[in-house]
Amino acid sequence: MRRRGRLSRVRYSPRAVRLSIEMNAKTAPASDVAIEFRGVSYHINDIPARAIVSNLSLTVSSGETLVLLGRSGSGKTTLLKLINRMLVPSEGQVLVEGHVTTDIDPIRLRRGIGYVIQEAGLFPHFTVAENVALVPTLEKWDSARIAARVEELLRLVGLDPAEFSARRPRELSGGQRQRVGVARALAADPPILLMDEPFGALDPVTRADLQREFNSLSGRLNKTIVFVTHDIREALLLASRIALLHAGRLVALATPRDFLRLDHPEVHAFVESLSVSSGVSS
Amino acid sequence: MTAWHFFITHRSEILSATLDHIILVVISVDVAIAIAVPLGMLIVQHRHLRAVALGIASVFQTIPSLALFGFLIPIPFIGGIGRRTAIVALVLYALLPILRNTYVGLTNIDPAILEAAEAMGMTNTQILLRVRLPLALSIILAGIRTATVITIGVATIAAAIGAGGLGTFIFRGVAMVSDAVILAGAIPAALLAICADLLLALLERRLRVT
Hints:
By secondary structure, chain A is of the alpha/beta class. Chain A has 13 helices and 10 strands.
């Protein structure tokens, strides 16, 4: 009942969204379900033989960082896009905060879900500040509130507002661009954050920096985060739980600690890749 | 009579023909922009109209220009002898480069940017006006530049149906078998085309977003 009330407010008033999220952060128990996949399949052009995701069920708890791990083509990104209805399931249902995604206006749904992708996808004709202000501007916040929010967010992701606000994306390094991407996704304080290999295109040193900061940030923000990666090292570092996908199916779901002990060929394949790469690096 | 001598003695006549020519081109290109840019935006949103719109615009371009002017003369309202008919023909000619570039500019955008825009909860119209259009401006302008240069050339033929402009000298020179008179129309027309090309190229570079 409480959830229904929350969502109806999400629909109509951005101000109420902020308030309800702040309240949610304090009162929601860790076991509260934020996202649920119920027997979800996704086929290209609705041809069952070309299934990207097959009969997958999974719940994501409020406030956790769920990492979707898998090889290229395992269906990770598809799963992510099913959450904010960039894709619609061929079978089954996806629920966000208790509501079936296809019952909610996709625009409202997406404004309540932050989204970060590889290479950030920043708008090249906008300044850093304008990029971060995108969703608040669409939500018609007043300009003073937007300016304050942009400054707050740039500080949060470690960029000095005085130095970076007026720059264009091409005047930033890859790591800085990704920071702006995170700030933009957080702008309207969405309860859910989807991240699709956000650090995939960065050099290893910058990536390690951002991963470390991500960990401290996600601890403080109390967001529900679904994070896609093919890098088991990254998964172990960032996840509260790891969901391993293989050929569109969920083959393992465990905390990082338990994950390493699982007995499944695909888990072994990933764990072995870990020991090979650390063997090379040491 | 040398070309230079003809230029000197007929300078006010040449100048006024040049002005007529510029007016003809500016009106035609403006009308073409007013049709082609919104049409390009429309066919991005409604893809089923795309082949039809681009096809029709291409057909106009394949009609030889002199024939197009001729075809228009008997048509009521838009036809007849004079400037109005010429403008209709020039607009039809200028449509394709602008329409094609508008469509290409609006669709040829980094998919990551469009994905982010969609995921942020922008509506299709917001994506079109705030993302696609600003990023397409320089390519649209390149189309306008091509259309302008073509129109300056084709507009000389408009003199054949009494629209005035620099083509008047060219037709007169052909009839008189006088190079000097032909050049009095051809040289200003060529200079106009070069100037327009340079100016628009400059503007295009300024609008480009990297």
